[in-house]
Specification:
The protein has helices at about 10-25, 35, 40-45, 50-70, 75-95, 105-125, 135-150, 155-165, 170-185, 190-195, 200-210, 210-225, 230-250. The chain has about 250 residues and is mainly α. The protein has one domain (about 10-250). The protein is globular. The relative contact order is 0.23.
């Protein structure tokens, strides 16, 4: 007896969803964190934002496990311990406000913030001896990152705005983000189920996308191990710029 799963069958959906999953996988290498935030906005061309976010949950779990293994031993444990409580607080806020706030408006606000941060970095680049951003700012940005991660898996831009001025080595950056997002993404499963997002159709469609997850992660990990710090941050800025533009478009012009 054939197994008939009620997954999405629209070819256009897969035309945007497969590249989105590949970009998200590359984002798990650290330098592509900006690119990874494009996944939900891309998939939202074919399905709603909540559907896209739900479909990516199993994909994210596989990617997070692969990234944890690939970057094992390179974590900044003190930084993770600082970030996690604020990131988890952001998911709580996201759970409470999920059905109240318009996801496109949230995307637009995140996009404006991302582009403003990039403009500041380009017009007033930090000096090598500049002090790290204050912890109070890191707390605010990480709560914002947890919130936008819950709403649309777009937590990268706010958290990156705090981490980039630290100029961490690429491997440390990638490993720390892998561990942080592994816990953060795990924390979303129960709220997503409670909100009714993990239905049969979304999960069946996610299974169809799952084979593409390892490909993106492996590409990103290979690049992260070989890339120079200068190119690392240039690509990170490029990803954040594209993400910012797409989120602003979706939030205010689409």
């Amino acid at each position: 007896m054939a197994l008939n799963l009620p997954l999405v069958t629209d070819p256009f959906f897969y035309a945007v969803a497969i590249p989105a999953v590949l970009l998200m996988g590359i984002g798990k290498s650290g330098f592509g964190a900006g690119f990874g935030s494009l996944a939900v906005p891309m998939m939202a061309l074919a399905v709603t934002v909540p559907q896209a976010a739900a479909m990516l949950m199993p994909v994210l779990l596989l990617m997070d496990l692969m990234s944890l293994y690939a970057f094992r031993g390179h974590y900044d444990r003190r930084l993770i311990a600082f970030l996690l409580p604020f990131g988890l607080l952001g998911t709580v806020v996201g759970t409470v406000l999920f059905k109240v706030l318009d996801a496109h408006l949230v995307a637009g606000i995140v996009g404006i913030f991302t582009l403003a941060f990039l403009a500041q970095q380009l017009l007033f680049p930090p000096k090598p001896d500049s002090p790290h951003p204050p912890k109070w700012l890191g707390a605010i940005l990480t709560v914002a990152g947890g919130f936008t991660s819950f709403i649309a898996h777009a937590g990268g831009p706010p958290v990156n705005a705090y981490l980039i001025p630290m100029r961490l080595p690429p491997m440390i950056f990638a490993a720390t983000m892998a561990a942080f997002y592994f816990v953060l993404n795990l924390s979303k499963w129960i709220p997503y189920a409670w909100l009714g997002l993990l239905d049969t159709r979304n999960m069946a469609t996610s299974l169809a996308l799952l084979p593409f997850a390892p490909i993106g992660v492996l590409i990103g990990v290979r690049l992260a191990r070989r890339i120079s710090a200068v190119l690392f941050y240039r690509l990170l800025y490029a990803g954040m710029f594209l993400t910012g533009c797409k989120l602003v478009w979706d939030g205010f012009f689409a």
